[in-house]
Amino acid sequence: xxxxxxxxxxxxxxxxxxxxxxxxxAVVVFRLTGRRALAxxxxxxxVTAVAVGALIGRTATATDASWLDGAAALIALLLAHLxxxxxxxxxxxxxxxxxxxxxxxxxxxxxxxxLRRCGMTRHDLDIVxxxxxxxxxxAVRLAVFEPNGAIxxxxxxxxxxxxxxxxxxxxxxxxxxxxRDT
Length: 182
Fold this sequence. Notes:
4 strands
């Protein structure tokens, strides 16, 4: 019973050493492949981040997996991620790897079909708008569900234009934020 609860100290030490070695390996490989995998979580980035955590945890605690096994799997996973990041510059791959932005609010009007496609309710949208300091829907020029899952909110000024005074990029057309699939 004590062995099941506490385990063998040498196995615990081995797990600690392996997790530290895998952590250092992950940091080095993430550094070499770029920060994108953790800074902007598109769906394929999220999968990579979760897989890295699972791989490190499993390898560290498995008695039948060495650091070399875990490091090889970790490097292969992060190299595959890097390939996807690079291939995203090709239009066909970009459409598969990154969901298009979706226009959720345009000139104070909620775009219900786009809201549904994003899996959001009106209540969810209201929460996000409040987090952006917007208390009235009429004050919203644009609210866009971005490919990384963030929601950008551009408020109106008293003149009706964007609050920052800059021209807005086009939100229609291929891959645009008009809420339609391309």
